[in-house]
TrEMBL record:
Tree of life domain: Bacteria
Molecular function via GO: transaminase activity
Keyword presence, Transferase: yes
Protein name: cysteine-S-conjugate beta-lyase
Enzyme nomenclature, EC number: 4.4.1.13
First-tier enzyme category under EC: lyase
Cofactor: pyridoxal 5'-phosphate
Coiled-coil residue spans: none
Family of this protein: Belongs to the class-II pyridoxal-phosphate-dependent aminotransferase family. MalY/PatB cystathionine beta-lyase subfamily.
Segments forming domain Aminotransferase class I/classII large: 49-391
InterPro entries in UniProt: Aminotransferase_I/II_large (IPR004839), Class-II_PLP-Dep_Aminotrans (IPR051798), PyrdxlP-dep_Trfase (IPR015424), PyrdxlP-dep_Trfase_major (IPR015421), PyrdxlP-dep_Trfase_small (IPR015422)
């Protein structure tokens, strides 16, 4: 694929980030740790929001902030339908899309509606932590199957999944997968669909990172195949691709409108509604955000490659697989003597804040990912390089150094 041409000002807005400006008191990412720490933990990008989105938000403020189209904003629904069709989610029925105040409420309400206390819910581990927290926090049991770390990258343990699938009614799937950065291939999705049909499982497919791919193939939703359409709820939102997590909005999509309704009803009035500004933001992202997104993905891909080259050259003992999507690298530092305390060690010695591996595993699997970290590389090349140099100085070129 030819890289998109970037106007120089777009590149400059990503290349010349001002740390003092980023560390404003509203930023959780930049204020959670000390003023000399480079924050590479929570999944926000350091880049400014797309100018077309900002313009739309300013325009929305001029129109007042009363209740918006709470029954489903028609413009956003039309834009979303067109977008989802490109992922293979065409022919959605009336009521097949509902807006949510975020993707996480969609995960929680699905677990509440589709399982009962004590039931097992299947997921793969490691995984974005609300997957297992939504299960244990609602009195269900996690049936987790570990992803296999192979020479070719993370792979699904099909035997493990098959065995666990026999004792559950619901699979929580992360596609693309946070934190390994895998984009499940057509072949893997087909095999998963076979399994889901064989065991008659419901699937919640969190596809929030779908627009941040470094692979050339078009994105294929899990529910793109009619065999699993009636069983699947897809979750998506604009916040990862457009860096708008503070506005909070998501969508639940299903070809079975009754299933969507049932899940929405399980949350009842507790869910709340998406905000007017978030609707405007998502409309603007879908209408005119494409070029900004293409530039951002190109920048992130170059950061990913820079990170890969740097680690291979200067920290060759760190095990990792370059991610196929997302700006979150999943790095295995278990060969280091400080692996048992790695997040604290890096904070203290490198002044770099990363996410600790065990965050992404249910209780029983936490020891297995102690010594792994998730590192957010969605920042300027200059800040990324500074962080990597700090890590190199703290960790040493050899694991035991
Ligand atoms: C896979 C995944 N799902 C959901 C979320 C959070 O979504 P929201 O903020 O819309 O609840 C994240 C945030 O990083 C994520 O990585």
């Amino acid at each position: 694929m030819t890289p998109p041409t970037r106007p120089p000002e777009a590149e400059a807005s990503r290349d010349s980030l001002d740390r003092a400006a980023l560390r404003h008191p509203d930023s959780l990412k930049w204020t959670a740790y000390g003023p000399d720490v480079i924050p590479m933990w929570i999944a926000d990008m350091d880049f400014p929001v797309a100018p077309s989105i900002l313009a739309a938000l300013h325009g929305r403020l001029d129109r007042g902030l009363g209740y918006h189209q709470l029954m489903g904003d028609p413009t956003l629904h039309t834009l979303l339908r067109a977008k989802l069709a490109t992922h293979g989610l065409s022919d959605l029925p009336e009521g097949g899309i509902i807006l949510l105040p975020g993707v996480v409420p969609g995960i929680y309400s699905s677990v509440a509606a589709l399982t009962r206390p004590g039931d097992r819910v299947l997921t793969m581990t490691p995984v974005y932590h609300p997957f297992h927290l939504s299960i244990t926090g609602q009195g269900r049991e996690v049936a987790a199957v570990e992803l296999l770390d192979t020479e070719d990258g993370y792979r699904i343990d099909w035997d493990g999944l098959e065995a666990a699938a026999a004792h559950t009614d619901l699979l929580l799937l992360c596609h693309p997968h946070n934190p390994t950065g895998r984009v499940w291939t057509h072949e893997e999705l087909e095999r998963l669909r076979d399994l889901v049909v064989r065991h008659n499982l419901y699937v919640v497919s969190d596809e929030l990172h779908a627009d941040l791919r470094f692979t050339d193939a078009p994105f294929e939703s899990f529910a793109a195949d009619p065999r699993v359409r009636g069983l699947t709820l897809t979750l998506t939102g604009p916040c990862k691709a457009f860096n708008t997590a503070g506005l909070g909005i998501g969508a639940m999509i299903g070809h079975d409108a009754e299933l969507v309704k049932r899940v929405r009803a399980a949350a009842g009035g507790l869910m709340g509604h998406e905000s007017a500004l978030s609707v405007t933001m998502w409309q603007a992202a879908l209408q005119g955000g494409g070029p900004w997104l293409a530039d951002t993905v190109a920048y992130l891909r170059a950061n990913r490659d820079f990170l890969t080259g740097y680690l291979r050259e200067h920290l060759p003992w760190v095990r990792f697989h370059p991610v196929e999507s997302t700006y979150l690298a999943w790095l295995d530092l278990r060969a280091h003597p400080q692996a048992g305390n790695i997040q604290n060690f890096l904070l203290e010695e490198a002044r770099v804040a990363v996410h600790d591996g065990p965050t992404f595993a249910p209780e029983a699997f936490k020891p297995g990912v102690q010594g792994l970290i998730r590192l957010n590389f969605a920042t300027s090349r200059e800040i990324l390089q500074d962080a990597l140099e700090r890590l190199r100085a703290a960790l040493g070129e050899q694991a035991g150094a």
